[in-house]
Amino acid sequence: MAALARAAAQDSFPARIVVVISPFGETPAAENARDMGLLVEVIPPEPLETYGERLLGALRAAGAKWICLAGYTRLLPPQILAAYPNRVLNVHPALLPKYGGKGMYGMRVHEAVLGSGDTESGCTVHFVNEQYDEGTIILQRKAPRLADDTPETLAKRVLEQEHVAFPEALSMVILGGRMKDEG
Q1: What is the pTM of this model?
Q2: Beta 67-69 vs 20-22: how paired, if at all?
Q3: Rounded CA separation 137/116 (Å)
Q4: Quick check: is 163 catalytic?
Q5: Count H helices, E strands: the chain?
Q6: CA 119: distance to chain centroid?
Q7: Per the structure, how many domains does the chain have?
Q8: Separation CA 161–CA 140 (nearest Å)
Q9: Domain span holding position 35
Q10: N or C: more exposed end of the chain, with fewer CB within 10 A?
């Protein structure tokens, strides 16, 4: 979130952050957003029956045109995807399609990469659909796996790539850039 906010603060960036939505008021992202002078809306996921409409209401009230998920670990309610077709992006801390899907977030991803013997990791920015981590890939950035890596050291290098990749991908899709699958 902070990397996107820093990018959006640049005059040359094609987007502005109009709202940061958090499930709780005291998350690091919400606190960072407030420190950066951004509007923060707290929308708890419960009750689940009204969650999608509450999210949609906050997004519409703020005038959001794109949605960027940073640390969001649930499936988005269907009404959000319907209201923002091909306008919801997520960053995942692995080179999808490896190490994605339900339950694959945070240190679990880095532990899986280290346990696999893969020589590299990285991040993937993709469009969000109804399934975890299965939307069309926009771009990927790689990070080497080092012999002495721990999940924490690998996570740090992957996060550095996420901070570059997410703003780059958002800018690319807004400006009509090409996606990975398009060659």
Answers
A1: 0.92
A2: unpaired
A3: 22
A4: no
A5: 6, 6
A6: 24
A7: 1
A8: 9
A9: 2-174
A10: C
